[in-house]
Design brief:
Two copies of one chain form a homodimer. Chain A is of the alpha/beta class and 264 residues long. Chain A folds into two domains: 101 residues, 2-Layer Sandwich (60s Ribosomal Protein L30, Chain: A); 155 residues, SPOUT methyltransferase, trefoil knot domain (Alpha/beta knot). Helices cover 36% and strands 19% of the residues of chain A. Chain A contains ten helices and eleven strands. The longest helix of chain A has 15 residues. Chain A is elongated, with a radius of gyration of 20 Å.
Chain lengths: 264, 264
């Protein structure tokens, strides 16, 4: 049976609200995901929240009922609450119907099978959570083997990244590692490292890609440092005809990934 | 000589702060743009702010000095202020070095020359300001003739859209109109209307594009309504191999736009 919480002062509400904050997430190793679409996507990938919050008014929604049963069967906690408390949890005036608290998950490089996919996305020092979520979504669409995050990247479990991923957080494996670890792992097997750069004459459509292709995107403002560019098998550029200067990092990653997919 | 404002209570500060709000923008026909990069981009396009705010500590920065001179020469107002007030204007703890107040600008369909570009971006009921800004940035990169916004779209002059555009707001013409006006204008001359859709078997790489190509992207959640799809010369889809459902609207627009650019 769902537990009922209607008091803002309930310590569980404070705990969940605090998961919006990076420091608390790091201590708790849990994160928030909101919305029926994302939570249903997660369940389809056998990822169930440890806690599921919904407003009484949504109790009859078929997808909410399915989620409630799945979470209870899995031994998780189901909590019926008020729209005002859901708003507090989700940080939105117009809260989503459901909020889930998930255990963080992550794989290491050693958990990846590079034969499992022809495209892998690699991003270094990615700073914007919306970009990270959007890249995950693109990764899902192109069938990427994983998103590998190099160095100090934004937290993939932040509320904004989870939201922008539209569920792809649960479908695309995420690895966090440093550059040296990545390069050692990469060179221990087949794999073409393709760097997106402004400092090359090679058009991304003129280059040849061989599976498994690892697409490396640099920091939004600075691009990748010289030692990373030097380690790439090829550097390619996306032509830009305009007066402003560059493409959004998630857009550039997607344009590249679809070119690789098209060639393969 | 720059005027100095150090009091939060100054009515001009309230006026500028309120431009973050859509209702106030609509009345004032002015908007905010922040950051040296975006303001310098604007100046290079001969768009100068009516008011320029900077913190005293930034006064010696060469790009700030150039902007100050340009705005003063243009008859605009230059205001030296405190970091705290700049934070209030920009809504960020770590404010950009400069904030500009610009007059809104816009062109009508009758102001477009369809022979001037081979690619035109069209979006209907776009809801996310980050997507709008990112699409403008892509439009700049592919040399799009304009971004044509159909129906109830998010405000291109919102702070978030301006920021995401990274200056492309000033380089890509923006038209706002309704669907009937657009279709009448489009069919009054050459132009291929290409709709991005999930309900077609035509792969976007298999289709042939002829200039000028008008790329139509539908609402983020719902796609385009049937009557718009029916009016398209061709519908194309971007293949998706994943388990989640769809690409981000700005990403899909960019993947399409680069395919068209590559074919041309």
């Amino acid at each position: 049976m769902p537990r009922e919480i209607t008091a803002f002062s309930n310590p569980l509400i404070k705990y969940v609200r605090d998961l919006r904050d990076k420091r608390h997430r790091r201590e708790a190793h849990q994160f928030l995901a909101e919305g029926l679409r994302i939570l249903t996507e997660a369940r389809d990938m056998d990822r169930l929240p440890r806690m599921l919050f919904y407003a009484a008014a949504s109790a009859a929604h078929p997808l909410v009922r399915e989620l409630v049963i799945a979470v209870e069967t899995d031994g998780g906690e189901v909590i019926e609450t008020t729209p005002a408390i859901l708003s507090k949890l989700s940080g939105k005036d117009n809260p989503q119907a459901v909020v889930g608290v998930f255990d963080e998950f992550e794989v290491g490089l050693e958990g990846l099978d590079r034969a499992s996919s022809a495209i892998w996305l690699v991003a270094e020092r990615l700073r914007d959570p919306g970009n990270l979520g959007t890249i995950l979504r693109t990764g899902d669409a192109v069938g990427a083997g994983a998103l590998i995050l190099i160095g100090e990247c934004v937290d993939p479990f932040s509320v904004e990244a989870v939201r922008a991923s539209m569920g792809a957080l649960f479908t695309v494996p995420i690895v966090r590692c440093d550059w040296a670890e990545f390069l050692t792992w990469l060179r221990d097997g087949p794999g073409q490292l393709v760097g997106l750069s402004l400092d090359t004459e090679t058009d991304y459509r003129a280059a040849g890609y061989s599976a498994p292709t690892f697409l490396l995107t640099g920091n939004e403002a600075q691009g990748m440092p010289p030692e990373m560019a030097a380690a790439c098998d090829i550097l390619v550029k996306i032509p830009m005809l305009g007066k402003a200067d560059s493409l959004n990092a998630a857009v550039a990653t997607a344009v590249m990934a679809y070119e690789v997919l098209g060639q393969q």
